């Protein structure tokens, strides 16, 4: 089964296994980043959010029983804070230079990383994209591990279609819980650069939570 971004039509597998963790990841939905170029709103990339399904469902259940959830913001916060691996998967919708992608992140996160004194992590992230061509269809995967590492993988369209993601050994890795949080909050936070994706991801989290509720009721019965 595939999950489709309603605006761009980009598709992502509903279930996926990545190189980190023993659990299957669940795609909670996808959204699109657009940029105004002159009079045209150009599609830049589609981005999907994956979480370790079983672990995320259990944690959402614990928070639910504690009365944590009231709105989409609460679900997005739980996804950001959750003690499970999570991955942002970007599919380029147009040709980009790697520096264009990393400069956009730098523009948003630069002040925050200067404030926290961790500009080194931002510079390391930017270095992964130096000299890279992000042609249409290229996928960028940013996996935030429970250990606080960010692992970044870039695959061109052909490689992404053929890759066994479980067997990938990421060459780009940095350890910074603060940078991981900043990067994911850029998409899941209240000032998300893909604001239309937040309610989609919150809805995906609600579906995971409902599955956990059903499992609990079945165990009781």
Supply database-style keywords.
two-stranded antiparallel ribbon, 42% helix
Q: What separation lies between the terminal Cα atoms? A: 30 Å
Q: Can you count the beta strands?
A: 11
Average pLDDT, rounded to a whole number, is 95
Percent helix? 40-55%
**Could you list the spans in which at least 5 consecutive residues all have pLDDT below 50?**
none
What structural class is derived from the secondary structure elements? alpha+beta
Total helix count?
Answer: 7
Radius of gyration: 17 Å
- Largest beta sheet: strand ordering: 3-4-5-6-9-10-11
Element-level helix/strand string? EEEEEHHEEHHEEEHEHH
What does the largest sheet look like?
A: 7 strands, antiparallel
Shape: globular
Strand content: 25-35%
Task: Describe this protein's structure.
The chain has helices spanning 53-65, 72-81, 98-116, 119-127, 157-162, 177-188, 197-220; strands at 2-4, 11-13, 15-16, 25-37, 40-52, 86-92, 96-97, 133-134, 139-144, 149-155, 172-175. The strands form 3 sheets. The chain has a 7-stranded antiparallel β-sheet with strand order 3-4-5-6-9-10-11. A two-stranded antiparallel sheet has the order 1-2. The protein has a two-stranded antiparallel sheet with strand order 7-8. The longest helix has 24 residues, at 197-220. It is globular and about 60 Å long. Helices cover 42% and strands 28% of the residues. The chain contains 7 helices and 11 strands. The two termini are 30 Å apart. The chain has 221 residues and is α+β, with helices and mostly antiparallel strands.
């Amino acid at each position: 089964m595939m999950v489709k971004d309603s605006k761009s039509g980009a598709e992502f597998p509903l279930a996926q296994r990545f190189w980190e963790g023993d659990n299957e990841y669940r795609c909670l939905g996808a959204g699109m980043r657009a940029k105004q170029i002159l009079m045209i709103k150009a599609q830049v990339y589609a981005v999907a959010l994956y979480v370790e399904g079983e672990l995320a469902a259990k944690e959402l259940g614990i928070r639910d029983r504690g009365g944590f959830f009231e709105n989409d913001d609460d679900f997005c916060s739980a996804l950001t804070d959750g003690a499970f691996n999570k991955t942002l998967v970007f599919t380029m919708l147009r040709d980009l230079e790697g520096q264009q992608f990393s400069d956009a992140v730098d523009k948003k996160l630069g002040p925050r990383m200067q404030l926290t004194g961790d500009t080194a992590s931002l510079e390391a992230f930017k270095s992964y994209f130096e000299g890279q061509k992000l042609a249409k269809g290229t996928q960028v995967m940013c996996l935030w591990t429970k250990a606080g590492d960010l692992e970044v993988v870039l695959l061109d369209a052909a490689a992404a279609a053929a890759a066994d993601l479980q067997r990938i050994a990421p060459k780009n890795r940095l350890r910074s819980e603060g940078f991981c949080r900043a990067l994911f909050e850029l998409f899941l936070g209240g000032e998300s650069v893909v604001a239309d994706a937040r309610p989609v991801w919150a809805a995906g989290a609600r579906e995971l939570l409902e599955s956990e509720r059903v499992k609990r009721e079945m165990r009781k019965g």
